[in-house]
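Our platform keeps sequence and structure together, in a single record for each protein. This encoding replaces a full spatial description with a residue-level series of whole-number codes. We quote a single record here, exactly as it is kept in our systems:
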Amino acid sequence: MIRRSAPPHAAAAPALADWHSRLISRRRFLLGLAGGSLAGLFGGAKLASGSARLDETKRWQILDTVQRQLLPSEPDSPGATEIRALDYLRFVVTDTKVDVQERQFILEGVGWLEDLSQAQHGDSFPALEPDVRERLLRRVAASPAGENWLSTLILYLMEALLCDPAYGGNPDGIGWRWLRHTPGFPRPTAATVYPSLPQ
């Protein structure tokens, strides 16, 4: 159950919270080894940061494509689209209480992925065929920072699946119904919802 005194991503189930804490610690260690630069670790390629040339629309299109690749829609289970994972991730990234390095890490990873896609395939990540995107993400996952970036996105996919719909994900409790989960009470109301949620 999400506590109202903290953002949903900070009040995840203990296992998710522990995983999140370990991801942040590992990320800081890895970035320290790389002198604060993700480029030397992401995908094992020497890349110029593409995040500066990506506009907001393109950046979120790439993130949406990555989420849908990580959690595709199936006939009998909701995917990233159905659980509105992108809406939830926007909520997380715009939450000023989320660690600045974490928000930067999520967004900069998009630029590195796009650069890798252009370098390897001459096209933008969303334009690639699904099997090509899968291979590229597996290459990203083979690097420590890339694995950490994808793990962070998976963490927020799971939160979008399980959070109260008031926080942008899990519309109409679709994730709860799929998992046959009964949410805790009381549920957030307009007066008690975490305050950084856009109205």
The CA atoms of residues 48 and 171 lie 38 Å apart. The chain has a mean pLDDT of 80.
